């Protein structure tokens, strides 16, 4: 059963194939798609902020920041949703049955989920707005639907020497495990222990203080750093946008097309920003892992805020899950028009 479908679907005068899509919150004047091989943003509502995605057992599983969906779903302690095609999603459960308690207060933000061996590791932020000592923890589950069992903290900001230590991203490279993290006090990376449960070695400075939401994608021997800058959570006035740098090494330096390093205060190449039209989406950012369909097309999942309906009834920012095709120009990835799509698009191709 499709979960949390926006009530706009009840008033669409077209009988949709397969199932009712999410409402076209970004542009209420554009008809929703009538065919199964098309979609329109957002692909899941009302909220899936700071998404991370993993594929397992024929499903894509997406996880988001702890949020209160108000009368559209209530409190979600890291929601899990799943889909077979990246377009039609259903709510599964909360990732945690019991909230981690190694901090006195805060929310579980920006989870990053990866299959490690036969288990599923979730690195997560534990923080609140203005938290002087945010931290990053680890939880582990035997399957992608959880429940995730907390393993405690990896580190606090004060312990690692980086203020606002949030937004973890895990990656394996050349048989080693690494964690990227950080926000408006810089992006850093550090090697993890063989079991991924502790840090080893010295941290490496990756990005300047304007970036957060680190993600690295390896393609054809090159590494592409994705980061978000601007304000994430100011409703229709949010300025979040996604930028990219390129490197020949996992630990950088990551450069823009002009050869300027993002570690030195340069912003990288912009690939996604708010719609220029007033009915689109504001603050697109904090992208998930890139997914590849059966035709080899790469897809970017991220959150954004519909300008015409930016908040839930309880004041929470409405940050639904978005989907757009990744394209490549001059050796760098981008999104068509560098803005979220607001009209019907060809859907990802999956044969299953």
From TrEMBL:
Pathway in which the depicted protein is active: Glycan metabolism; L-arabinan degradation
Site residues by UniProt (Important for catalytic activity, responsible for pKa modulation of the active site Glu and correct orientation of both the proton donor and substrate): 167
InterPro entries in the cross-refs: GH43_arabinanases, Glyco_hydro_43, Glyco_hydro_beta-prop_sf
An example molecular function term from Gene Ontology annotations: hydrolase activity, hydrolyzing O-glycosyl compounds
Signal peptide bounds: 1-17
CDD domains given in the database record: GH43_ABN-like
Family recorded in the similarity comment: Belongs to the glycosyl hydrolase 43 family.
Protein name as catalogued: Arabinan endo-1,5-alpha-L-arabinosidase
Organism lineage: Bacteria, Pseudomonadati, Bacteroidota, Cytophagia, Cytophagales
